Amino acid sequence: MSIEKIGKGDVMYLKRLRELREDNDYTQEFVSKKINMKREQYYRYESGKRDIPLDSLIILANLYKTSVDYILNLTDEKSQYKKSS
């Protein structure tokens, strides 16, 4: 079974990723260090040239205090999910 791309959501996902970074006044250099990679590699993720690994998405969601679903444009709810006990 193949996994299909998000389609039209791809553009929104890239836009949302950049907006979150800019809204927090972070540079690509700062964010790339937070997810342990070079700025050039992070640039490829933000520009859509490469897919972001799940572990990096989780770190970004925590950094921006939001959810992976929000970053991926699967929801418009910006707040983080509450952890279940």
Topology:
Elements: H1 9-23, H2 28-34, H3 39-46, H4 54-63, H5 68-71
What's a quick, concise take on this entry?
The chain is an all-alpha fold. It has helices at 9-23, 28-34, 39-46, 54-63, 68-71.
Walk me through the structure.
It is a single chain. The protein contains five helices and no strands. Helix 2 (28-34) crosses helix 3. Mean pLDDT is 85; it is low at 1-9. The chain is mostly helical. It is globular, with a radius of gyration of 13 Å.
Mean of residue pLDDT?
Answer: 85
Please compute the radius of gyration using only Cα atoms: 13 Å
Quickly give the structural class. Answer: mainly alpha
Sheet having the most strands: none
Spans where pLDDT lies below 50 across 5 or more residues: 1-9
**Subunit organisation of the chains:** single chain
The CATH topology turns out to be: 434 Repressor (Amino-terminal Domain)
Number of strands: 0
What is the CATH level 1 assignment? Mainly Alpha
Q: Helical proportion?
A: 40-55%
The count of domains is: 1
Shape: globular
CATH architecture label name = Orthogonal Bundle
Q: How many angstroms does the end-to-end distance come to?
A: 34 Å
How are helices and strands ordered from N to C?
Answer: HHHHH
CATH superfamily: lambda repressor-like DNA-binding domains
